[in-house]
Amino acid sequence: MFRPLELFIGLRYVRAKRRNQFISFISGVSIVCITISVMALITVMSVMNGFDFQLRSRILGAVADATVASVEPAGMSGWQRALATAHANPHVRGAAPYVDVQAFLQGRGSSGVMMRGIDTKLEPQVSNFNLHMTSGSYDSLAPGSWNILLGNELAMQLGVAVGDKVVAIVPQLRATPFGSVPTMRSFHVTGIYSLGMHDYDANLALIDMQSAEKLSSLAGPTGIRLKLDNLWNAGIVAHQLADRLGDVYQVRTWMQDNANFFSAISMEKKVMGIILSLIVLVAVINLVSMLMMLVTDKQADIAILRTLGLTPRSVMGTFMVQGVLVGLVGIVLGVVLGSLLSWQLPAIVDWIQDVFHVQFLSPDVYYISQVPSRLEWGDVVWVTLVTFAFALLATLYPAWRASRTQPAQALRYE
Q1: Along the 414 residues of the chain, how does pLDDT read in single tens digits?
Q2: DSSP letter at 365?
Q3: Closest by alpha carbon to 211, among 148, 273, 127?
Q4: CB 264 within 8 A of CB 372
Q5: Which of 372, 320, 370 lies closest to 343 in space, CA to CA?
Q6: Of 300, 303, 289, whose CA–CA distance to 397 is shortest?
Q7: Cα–Cα dist 90/393, whole Å
Q8: Could you please report the per-residue DSSP string of 169-198?
């Protein structure tokens, strides 16, 4: 005889006879509901992961994982020692000094900006401005060159392009025969970059560090930007460097500067996961209804099996097999379809936009103009396990009711 017996009977019940086609229909509806729920959950979480990854990579492409800055307004004295101390930390993968200068830029238009003086050789260790150049050359920022790189939105505000000149006005007075006047300097625009983030594309300009020091009358950088092996180690590294460098330096992390932003994204993902998990739960409740109808329909079969020696435990196992099998089929279909949809979602959205001439995410409004999708297998495993647990729990009560069937009462009118 086929063993285990519970699995044999449960598989036989999956294929309905003619008089049980309604039960088969309900089973199909349960599979479809679970499939759609799992597919939706995987797709939505992939989209949330995509937005999180895009925003994180764009923001952290310009923001260092950690920053060492002097508490003195005159700049960092002995910054080489601080740089060597930072490099000595095993979690630090790159370090680059910088000089921040508040300035007012004048071209055909005008705008207040933050001018950042960088070392072009060391800066790629901590940021990726060099990978986002839309025109011009990142390497044009030679020491003392008085060249400048602008964000694409800032260039539009100023009305300039590569090859034009802009005038930087720094609110730092210097004495002249005509009295105290602000510092002014002309720069050549030699490059335009686009990070895709308004705060950086419209409010940040890059110059070489030597020019920034002269412009702000500093003898050294205002800080050192660090890139770590893992951005989540920023808190640990900040604590270690603060202990070694002493009170003359301040160490800040990306989490302190952007904690609320990324916490909001993480919370939104969790809330969406909970909401969609409730949808999965509703689909599983439909599985409970299907099993209860099956138990009612199979009362005579259960009674006959009980008279032949089938134990209540075996009866319970038979109907658990039925429910788990339906759940597994729905989960497998949902995982396959959800993974495929997540993988091809950007292309599908682009096709819909081209065919119907619509724009879901306008680049004039949103930082990200395309719907991103990033499938993470950890989320797929989590969805699979949670849905399977729901399906397994859904079988318990109907299976228990089936095991409580009394043969004499069930066969009384047969």
Answers
A1: 445 766 666 666 665 554 556 667 777 888 888 898 889 888 888 888 888 777 776 666 677 888 898 777 667 777 888 888 898 999 999 999 999 999 999 999 999 999 999 998 999 988 888 888 999 999 999 888 899 999 999 999 999 999 999 999 988 756 555 555 678 899 999 999 988 777 788 899 999 999 998 888 887 888 899 999 887 788 899 899 988 888 788 888 887 776 666 666 667 767 776 777 777 777 778 778 877 877 777 777 777 777 777 778 887 877 788 788 888 999 999 999 999 999 998 888 888 888 888 877 766 666 666 788 888 888 899 889 988 888 888 888 888 888 887 776 666 655
A2: T
A3: 148
A4: no
A5: 372
A6: 289
A7: 48
A8: EEEEEEEETTEEEEEEEEEEEEEEE--S-H
Output the six-digit token pair for 349.
């959205």
C-alpha distances in angstroms, 312 versus 37, 59, 121, 265, 320?
33, 61, 76, 50, 12
Nearest residue to 403 (alpha-carbon basis) of 299, 323, 326, 325: 299
pTM strictly above 0.70: no
Copy the structure tokens of residue 232.
């989540």
Asked if residue 182 lies in contact with residue 173, where contact means CB atoms within 8 angstroms, the answer is yes
The domain ranges of the chain are: 5-58+261-410, 72-246
Q: How many residues does the chain have?
A: 414
Residue 52: how many CB atoms within 10 A of its CB? Answer: 17
